[in-house]
Design a protein that fits this description.
Layout lengths: L2 H25 L15 H10 L1 H24 L5 H20 L5 H30 L4 E4 L2 E4 L5 E4 L3 E7 L5 E10 L2 E8 L2 E10 L5 E6 L2 E5 L4 H12 L2
């Protein structure tokens, strides 16, 4: 079994166990004191929240988000292309929106403050994701210098040419089955991915579609890349072929 998949199963398995346990205890066992900060509230606030439907709303949010988390996990396990990423994005959106929605049941004097606090946190998360997406969407710079293939940017590497055993052209990419450690957005692929023809992950640096792709076999595994500018791709291919 691929190392990346094992790590994924362990991390997501524990996450589901903890999140599912919390959901079960709150929804089924009515153990409200597991909710963050609830036990430290004055008794009159606890009574108000229970009467106003706050507890039931939290239970609904936990149930929905746990279902989305479990669905994302299954999509990842069965290697549905981009299923895990899309599922986790929906999970995060529902969790953030649901947390804002919960404030309608909050103690009146705390609602405005909580709206601002959660709004700021949501804004920070959105900005971070946007930055990561923009940075990840940028094409990696690739050059051959000092007998080394230098791949700059996200998931980049320096590969000595004497560690390259084979360089070829292929007309199309192998079928991608899962991402083990990488970035995938639209037709941009960076990092480690599993394919239907390989039990081990390969490294991809794909900047959209092109007439051909270059495969590079190294001591650490297979790399496949292309370039937005095909004349640049031709030049890199020729440099690697004449190493």
């Amino acid at each position: 079994m691929e190392k990346g998949l094992i790590i994924f199963l362990i991390i997501m398995g524990w996450t589901l166990l903890i999140y599912g346990g919390l959901t079960f205890l709150v929804v089924k066992k009515k153990d409200y004191f597991l909710l963050s900060g609830f036990a430290n509230r004055p008794e009159e606030e606890q009574a108000y929240l229970k009467q106003n439907g706050y507890i039931e709303a939290v239970g609904k949010l936990l149930t929905v988000t746990f279902s989305l988390l479990a669905l994302s996990f299954l999509l990842g396990v069965f290697s549905v292309p981009y299923g895990f990423e899309v599922g986790m994005a929906i999970f995060l959106i529902v969790l953030l929106a649901g947390t804002l929605w919960l404030q309608r049941y909050e103690v009146p004097r705390k609602r405005k403050r909580n709206y601002w606090l959660i709004g700021i946190i949501t804004g920070i998360i959105v900005i971070f994701i946007a930055f990561l997406s923009i940075f990840g969407y940028r094409e990696n710079d690739m050059v051959v210098v000092d007998n080394t293939l230098v791949i700059e940017g996200m998931y980049g590497d320096n590969i000595p040419l004497d560690q390259i055993s084979k360089v070829e052209k292929i007309d199309q990419l192998p079928e991608i089955t899962a991402k083990t450690n990488g970035f995938a957005m639209s037709n941009r692929l960076k990092g480690k991915f599993l394919t239907e023809k390989s039990e081990e992950s390969i490294r991809l640096f794909i900047a959209g579609k092109s007439s051909y792709y270059v495969t590079v076999e190294t001591e650490e595994g297979l790399i496949i890349f292309n370039r937005e500018n095909e004349s640049e791709l031709d030049r890199l291919y020729q440099q690697l072929q004449s190493r």
